[in-house]
Amino acid sequence: MTVAMMKTYRQNRARFPASDLKRYDGQWVAFSTDGCRIVASGESVGQVSERVSAAREDLQDVVLERIEIETGDIQLGGAELL
Questions:
Q1: Where are the chain's structural domains?
Q2: Which pLDDT score, from 0 to 100, does residue 27 have?
Q3: Which of 17, 22, 30, 51 is deepest in the core (most CB within 10 A)?
Q4: Is 25 in contact with 50 (CB distance < 8 Å)?
């Protein structure tokens, strides 16, 4: 992805409504390279890869991202549990 394409992706991805992303919480999502649409989603990168291919899209024409919606809850790491 060129620098110009990455800039466009970041701008459009930042405008993607959080309310639309809620349904993908905890999943991997394949965004179009312009960041305007979701091509596929799934629980694993492998599952997303299969779905991108099934949608007849090229894996090199998507950007993978894991969606984690922040809830404001405190997340403790393993050290805090000892």
A1: 3-69
A2: 95
A3: 30
A4: no
